């Protein structure tokens, strides 16, 4: 009953098979392999962007930090939600890889920025003198850290604000596939057609062993990204093991199929959770993440039964009044079974 993270789940059989096949024989290193050629062409086709540059790295933090290092100068700031992954879960990597660019954190309900809040934050930044930090890129997270999903209209509105100030837009898509599955849209519609300039296209959380693609819709940024990736120590020598994963991931719609499975499992979990006495959703679950408040006693029963997930708040001890609500995060991955869902619901119910 592990609902701690989609990072905790297994790799999909198709991904494992692709890596095993790539292990048969030799291939040129550092991304000069045939698997990378095929993955690049498939990603360009998937995003309807034949000139896009494609770069692979092993972690989401590397993808975001390197992307933003290309988009932001050291004297600029990156505008993002106060709970964005780049702000709270990347140990200062965006600041480090950009050479010192800061992050401007903006509040917003349900993990989302609004055009009004973004515009106000940009307006008060960069007074056109040497003493001020200057305006830099906007970074959006899709799926958000609250488990919600920006609509295409919301992405377009935020991009329009950024473009009004002549600022580029980055999309942290660690759970990109889950968002596409939730919206029923194409990758192109959720990126460059909505005003996104660069995207971190995640695979690790959605059935891959460990691979993320950074896709830039401005091919002029490709060489700088290549240099920064190498200098930052994120250019794999045996790159074929990244390439083979990504090629398999975007073949025959596997990326979307896995996300649909994760989202469907989350919907079933949410439906059952709604009937647990004392349960309350902190945000409406829209993809594969749930934030909910449950009585302490329900958490105690679940953990005693072997469940694993994260608790949040000033007091997460399982000792104390049983009816005290404690917030939790529950994440479903592609392999989440009905049996696992039924088991944790039974434990919560007691």
Proportion in helices: 25-40%
Q: For the record, what CATH class of the largest domain applies?
A: Alpha Beta
Low-pLDDT segments? none
Kindly report the CATH topology of the largest domain.
Aspartate Aminotransferase, domain 2
Beta-strand portion reads 15-25%
Rounded mean pLDDT is 97
- The Cα radius of gyration reads 21 Å
Shape: globular
State the separation between the terminal residues, measured CA to CA: 16 Å
Tell me the series of helices and strands, N- to C-terminal.
HHEHEHHEHEHEHEEHHHEEHEEH
Q: How many helical elements?
A: 13
Structural class: alpha/beta
Walk me through the structure:
A hairpin with a 7-residue loop joins strand 8 and strand 9 (289-295). This protein has helices spanning 13-22, 34-46, 60-71, 85-88, 93-97, 115-123, 152-164, 176-183, 222-231, 240-249, 254-273, 296-304, 338-349, and strands at 53-57, 76-81, 102-106, 134-141, 169-173, 198-202, 212-216, 280-281, 289-295, 310-312, 325-331. The radius of gyration is 21 Å and the shape is globular. The protein has two domains: 11-253, Aspartate Aminotransferase, domain 2, CATH 3.40.640; 255-349, Aspartate Aminotransferase, domain 1 (Alpha-Beta Complex), CATH 3.90.1150.10. The protein has 350 residues and is an alpha/beta fold. The two termini are 16 Å apart. 39% of the residues lie in helices and 17% in strands. The mean pLDDT is 97. The chain is built from 13 helices and eleven strands.
């Amino acid at each position: 009953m592990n609902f701690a993270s989609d990072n905790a789940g297994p790799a999909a059989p198709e991904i494992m098979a692709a890596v095993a096949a790539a292990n048969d024989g030799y291939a040129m290193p550092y991304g000069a392999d045939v698997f990378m050629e095929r993955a690049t062409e498939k990603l360009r086709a998937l995003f309807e962007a034949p000139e896009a540059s494609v770069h692979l790295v092993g972690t989401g933090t590397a993808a975001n930090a390197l992307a933003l290092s290309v988009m932001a100068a050291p004297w600029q700031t990156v505008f993002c939600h106060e709970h964005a992954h780049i702000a709270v879960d990347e140990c200062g990597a965006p600041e480090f890889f950009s050479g010192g660019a800061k992050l401007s954190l903006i509040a917003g309900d349900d993990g989302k920025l609004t055009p009004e809040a973004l515009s106000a934050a940009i307006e008060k930044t960069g007074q056109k003198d040497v003493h001020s930090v200057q305006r830099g890129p906007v970074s959006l997270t899709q799926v958000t850290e609250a488990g919600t999903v920006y609509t295409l209209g919301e992405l377009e509105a935020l991009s329009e604000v950024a473009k009004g100030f002549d600022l580029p837009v980055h999309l942290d898509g660690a759970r990109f596939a889950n968002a596409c599955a939730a919206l029923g849209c194409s990758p192109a519609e959720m990126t460059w057609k909505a005003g996104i300039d660069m995207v971190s296209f995640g695979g690790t959380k959605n059935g891959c062993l460990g691979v993320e693609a950074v896709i830039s819709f401005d091919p002029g940024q490709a060489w700088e990204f290549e240099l920064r990736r190498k200098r930052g120590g994120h250019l794999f020598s045996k790159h074929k093991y990244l390439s083979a994963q990504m090629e398999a991931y975007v073949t025959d719609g596997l990326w979307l199929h896995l996300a649909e499975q994760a989202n469907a499992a989350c919907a079933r979990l949410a439906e059952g959770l709604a009937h647990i006495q004392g349960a309350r959703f902190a945000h409406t679950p829209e993809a594969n993440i749930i934030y909910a408040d449950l009585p302490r006693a329900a958490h105690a029963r679940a953990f005693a039964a072997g469940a694993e997930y994260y608790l949040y708040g000033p007091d997460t001890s399982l000792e104390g009044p049983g009816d005290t609500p404690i917030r939790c995060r529950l994440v479903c991955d592609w392999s989440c079974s009905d049996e696992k869902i039924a088991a944790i619901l039974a434990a919560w119910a007691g």
